[in-house]
Amino acid sequence: MASQPLVLVADDEPRITKLVAIALGEEGFRVITAATGEEAIRKAEEYRPDVVLLDIVMPDLDGIEVMGQLREGRPVPVILLTAKGSTADKAKGLDLGADDYIAKPFHPDELAARVRAVLRRSTGAAPGIGVIRFDDVEIDLERRMVTRSGELVQFSRTEWLLLQHLAANAGKVVLHTELLTKVWGPEYRDDLQYLRVWVSRVRRKLGAEPGEPGRIRTFQGIGYLLDVDGRVARDEQASAAGTSDGGAVAFPSAGSSA
Fold this sequence. Notes:
This protein has nine helices and twelve strands. By secondary structure, it is an alpha/beta fold. Helix 3 links the parallel strand 3 and strand 4. Helix 6 crosses helix 8. 34% of the residues are buried. About 4% of the residues have low confidence.
């Protein structure tokens, strides 16, 4: 029993915590619950859960504040429970490092799948293979660190896993389905919009201007490529100028930032 993953659910609605506890219990998880943010912090310190589900709106501390305090102690994975349509709260939560979010009302099967996916990401990251440098960016795959101009850049676990997979295959096009399956799990393999959102976030952290692809190039309908040496960008410029030598990229030309 003790080997089963432990989930902490924090929500001030008893019917929600009861539903989640039943749904996850039937899927083999152990579940503890909290009705307030303070209680969630206390129980997280006492029980050290494997993943935390946090309602954004609670009577004392909101879920984002709780997540911040939890992360001061250890990097526990966090899924935010949000009201349907609260786009600003979702974006804020993801910016501050949430691993995923799920909108209420939700289907129990979807909830269990999201929890399993986050647990896979938190325990199954591939080992690094060295240091990759471009522009003012350095990606240290062994130490799992990214710096820009010598300053450490904070990446959430999901952002790091996405960048790690692109960096480990630098110079190669990585298929949409491969990224979705490797980072989020097979149940996400067709969720291209989800992937676009996360790629956009990683691009910004690597220094790309809004709406620009930076070093992560898009191959429409195919996948993404981390263009470390700028070869794809040069090929695009040469093609636009009518001077391409037909050289390097064996895929349709890269798009801008989609």
